[in-house]
Amino acid sequence: MHFDHAGTLDDFPNARVHLQDLEMQFATGRHMLHQGIRFAFNVEDVVAMVRRLYQEKVVFHEGDQQLAPGVSVHHLGGHTMGMQVVRVWTQRGWVVLASDASHFYANMQTGRPFPVLYNVADMFAGWRRCAELADSDEHIIPGHDPLTLQLYPAVSPELEGIAARLDLPPAPMPESVVDAASTGGSMLFKQASE
Question: Is the torsion defined by CA of 97, 99, 104, 107 positive or negative?
Answer without folding.
Answer: negative
